[in-house]
Design brief:
The complex is a heterodimer of chains A (about 240) and B (about 270).
Chain A: E1 7-16, E2 19-29, E3 34-38, H1 45-52, E4 60-65, E5 68-69, H2 73-82, E6 83-86, H3 98-108, H4 114-127, H5 143-155, E7 161-165, H6 173-188, E8 192-196, H7 200-206, E9 209-214, E10 217-222, H8 224-229, H9 234-243
Parallel strand pairs in A: 3-8, 3-9, 6-7, 7-8
Antiparallel strand pairs in A: 1-2, 1-4, 4-5, 9-10
Chain B: H1 22-38, H2 40-80, H3 84-98, H4 102-124, H5 127-130, H6 136-161, H7 165-173, H8 178-208, H9 220-231, H10 234-263
Helix pairs in contact in B: 1-2, 1-10, 2-3, 2-6, 2-9, 2-10, 3-6, 4-6, 6-8, 7-8, 8-10, 9-10
The chains are: A alpha/beta (about 240), B mainly alpha (about 270).
Amino acid sequence: MEREPIIHIENVHKWFGHVHALRGVNLDVYKGEVVVIIGPSGSGKSTLLRCINRLEEFDEGKIIVDGIPLDSAENINAVRTEVGMVFQQFNLFPHLTVLENICLAQRIVRKRKKEEAEAIAMELLRKVGIPEKAHNYPAQLSGGQQQRVAIARALAMNPKIMLFDEPTSALDPEMIQEVLDVMLNLAREGMTMVVVSHEIGFARAAAHRAILMDEGQIVEEAPPDILFNNPRHERTRAFLSKVLH
Amino acid sequence: MNLPARDSAPLLSQKRFRDPWWLLVLAIVLIVIALVVLQPDPFQRILLFVRDGIQVTIYVTLVSFALVLFLGLIVGLIRLSKLTLLRGIATIYVEVIRGIPVLVQLIFWYFAFPSLVQDIGRSVGWSPLMNYRPNPVAMAILGLTICYAAYMSEVYRAGIQSIPRGQMEAARSLGMTYFQAMRYVILPQAVRVILPPVGNEFITLLKDSSLTSVVAVPELTRRGREFMAASFIPLQTWLMVSLLYLVMTLLATRVVAWIEYKTRLEK
């Protein structure tokens, strides 16, 4: 693993009005690493993730992604093209077909030709297992299929980092695994991933590090086996006892 | 910039567009034709007299509406932006315009505004301004545009706000700029939402164009009044004028319904 972190988060604070959502978060993520963040709702884990590509502004501290500090508007756009994001609600563009969803940003941001963009899109659709849905509209797909398209759409931009914001929380139980399988493959290929998720199975199988956040702070970070089996902190234990039943 | 081809996925319902209300348009047209053919005096005389008025009505309405669509979008986007000063100005514009009757605004632009220009011309001693004479059609289009753009900006604003925030976030997280996201992601969806209210605005504008008759625009209503003054047959004159407006508004309603059908998404 390289010494220079690909994501460097230093003493980041964030307020929503009077709510102190992030209270001095420090985190380094290295190239090829898979980091899973867990924690109770309202703990700031999604906010932290959204700060990494500046969908959420932070009030204090600094974040450097792939050597680019998140400060100017140009830098933010530069970072966003390097960082793919997958949302809980998929956020596919409902007025475009699956193929068009994956091609749009390739063409207007990456300036790829139509044939090239479509070839890349079809390859990614095969990778996520639904090439036959290329010409369907998102509303005609199941939740699991939509989320796989969303992953393909993000991958089409050749990101160096993928962020997942509770990617399976909005899915019916029988569709969770198909999305996790795609994510597992991605992790095996060496993609740098930061995943907010309560899928402990995925964390055990793919994560190098698991992090527990609570009240805007990182409470504990450790390899998943250690964090889930022998947590050091009482708060981690309390949270895990609820999640693991 | 071309988007990926749309025709590759014609997933709109293949059912043909059946709209029984076209029959109503047809019926009104047939009544007009019947009146003109069966009773050429006075109906054919009226129609020939107001014919150029119909053209002016259509011209004023279409030109104003094209400008309204454009200006309304700009004002709507400004009202949604974070540019505090501009947003404040846009909000004042919308609130002021919506609080003044259209008729008063039209009179203002045709009578009051030119006299203001002339006063300024006199005080600076510049004869082109002193001798400024307003063009009725241009001032009517200006007045209608400024008034309706205020209403239209609210339609756009509501339409854009009805698109879930995640759409903008997804577009931005893919590296699109704000304007790319607006153009390729938000507006194409918002347009489908706002089509019915936009259609209503168009029809209201078409009807309100009759108000420009008081500011010297030779459109349908004014031509009707002129004919009545010359002929003293108010009943037939206003029957004909009413039917002509009805043909135009019902036709516009059907066209909007057809566009709505064509652009809807398969659910």
